[in-house]
Every structure is written in structure tokens, then in C-alpha cells.
Amino acid sequence: MPINFDSALGIHADALRVRSQRAELLATNLANADTPNYKARDIDFQSALKMAASGQTSPSLNTTHQKHIAGSGSSSFDSQLQYRQTMQDSLDGNTVDEQVEQSQFMQNAVQYQASLEFLGSRFQSLTKAIRGE
């Protein structure tokens, strides 16, 4: 009987991919904390995870006419990017709040680690099942 890894691993593989991209985005925000007019961005994790779980890489486009050009999907979750709301305006137009970004980065890292540990235990369970232990 073949093993279906999608059903065995659940949504955690998709969560790792989304959390990894979110970590890159938050690190970019922190790197641009002193860049004038830089706008801090973040991913809407819930909708990006739903999109990843359904196998989509970009939101589907509805064509209402046969001559409409089909949109090409991107490999990232660009459609889920949102600009972060500022708590206090800065003079140079930068919206990065380093404390908020560091907090979000650390929270994302903890959740990423939790998903990794869960997947590790799932792989151990599958290995034991294959060995017949």
C-alpha cells in the first residue's frame, strides 16, 4: 500500500513554506529599517496557508470572455502581501517599527520550529510504521 505524503504530513509542509517566505519578508523589513520611504510588508498567513493547502500559487482569475488572456501564476504569495499599519508616523516616510518587526520575526521563528518538530515526529512515526515497530 503506497504512502500518500500529502495526507500523512497534513498542512504542516505548506505551513513551513509560508512561514519561510514570511521570515524572509520580515528580515527584509528589518534590513530596511533606515531606508527612507520604505513601507513595511507582511503576509496574511491564514489566507496564504489556505491558498498553499489548495495547491494554488496565486489567486485564480476568472475570465468572463473567451478572448481574455489567462494570467500566469507566480511562485510566491505576492497576492497575500499587505502593508503594515504604522503606530507612529516617521519623518522620512519609513513605516518599519523595529520592535514590532523583531517581535513578529521571533513569533514566526517559534511557530516555524514547532512545525518542524511536528513534521519530524510524523516522519519518525512513518519510519516506525514502515519498519513494523
Automatic annotation (TrEMBL):
Biological-process GO terms, alphabetical: bacterial-type flagellum-dependent swarming motility
Localization: Bacterial flagellum basal body
Segments forming domain Flagellar basal body rod protein N-terminal: 11-39
Keyword Transmembrane helix: no
Keyword Calcium among record annotations: no
Residue segments, region Disordered: 56-99
Subcellular location, principal: other
Compositionally biased region (Polar residues): 72-99
Annotated keywords: Bacterial flagellum, Cell projection, Cilium, Flagellum
A Pfam family the protein falls into: Flg_bb_rod
One CC-aspect GO term: bacterial-type flagellum basal body, rod
Subunit structure: The basal body constitutes a major portion of the flagellar organelle and consists of a number of rings mounted on a central rod.
Task performed by this protein: Structural component of flagellum, the bacterial motility apparatus. Part of the rod structure of flagellar basal body.
Family classification: Belongs to the flagella basal body rod proteins family.
Annotated protein name in UniProt: Flagellar basal body rod protein FlgB
